[in-house]
Sequence to fold (346 residues):
Amino acid sequence: MSKLRIGLIGAGGIATSVHIPAYEAIADKVEIVAIADVAYDRAKLIAERHQIPAVFDNYETMLTETEIDAVSVCVPNKFHKAAVINALTAGCHVLCEKPPAMNQEEAKEMEDTARRAGKLLMYGFHYRFQSETQAAKRFIDAGELGDIYSGRVQAIRRRGIPGWGVFTNKELQGGGPLIDIGVHMLDTALYLMGYPEPAVVLGKTHQQIGTKKGVGLMGDWDYQNYSVEDMAIGMITFNNGASLVLESAFAANVEKQDTMQVSLMGNKGGADIFPLKMYQEKHDTLVDVTPAYLPEVHAHQVEIHSFVAQCLSGNVTDHYAKQGTNIQKIIDGLYQSAETGKAVYL
Ligand SMILES: NC(=O)c1ccc[n+]([C@@H]2O[C@H](COP(=O)([O-])OP(=O)(O)OC[C@H]3O[C@@H](n4cnc5c(N)ncnc54)[C@H](O)[C@@H]3O)[C@@H](O)[C@H]2O)c1
Fold:
């Protein structure tokens, strides 16, 4: 079989640190044939470094002038929708970085376009591909936790406001920690819970630390133009009766520097996922179950290699695109609820 021809939209942080190396690691299956970035010099530099033959200052020209089978979309959130729709319409499979989009309307349009085009649209939710998540999934699928009726997700940094990129710009990102890091843990929880349909959400956001100069453990951020929340709290109920609470922060006065955790509670057992520990009652005894060994994986790479394998197999599914709309619906609801002070019925 011939190699999958990849085009990259965006030559910034995630494209160069994750997507390019992951594609290069399977050079027998893929070749990166083109790269486009509005910052042409940046794209050119990256292209020279990685021997990418074609460089463009806009992806529209890249998509019309180059034979491409699949595209990685690695641009700020505001530009996901247009890039994804253009690439799908040009006949490419698409791996779009997370979050899917700025809001659910955009995500739905992207989902519908993928279905119409008969192409794969997958999102960069790499925590699904961690060993812990995959092991937990096997236990859950085997019924070890029973019915999962409640969960908690945490993506909390003590002082982790990014000092680079556009992560603190609401106009370009759609929000702060909720849409940027909370979304990773939310996706992991939903994935393990079987992506239930959300029913009602209640959200509250806070902006207490980001707008002031302070200690930056992820660089010095632009506190004068800080336009996103620094903490988001949420409660989500689902049509199947389950519930989930969410805490997400770029900065909070807490002990730990960084917490990324998903906890699930079922009627036969519970689990914390990172690291994986499960809690059950067996033979009149409360027991904890921990894996003695889990393979170390590079989850970003596993995600990208899974995308490639699916593109090459031609086995196109719309379930990632549907899940993208679903998660975006929850995020929109939480932000809307935070704004209005009322619960949002989805
Ligand atoms: N999966 C993860 O853990 C993870 C980590 C970091 C970032 N991301 C996501 O990746 C995306 C990009 O983030 P980043 O950190 O690489 O940002 P970045 O700012 O480092 O890079 C973005 C690049 O996109 C380019 N660009 C902007 N608009 C464009 C357009 N219309 N066409 C072509 N290029 C354009 C910029 O010039 C820049 O080079 C975001 O959606 C972010 O949420 C995901």
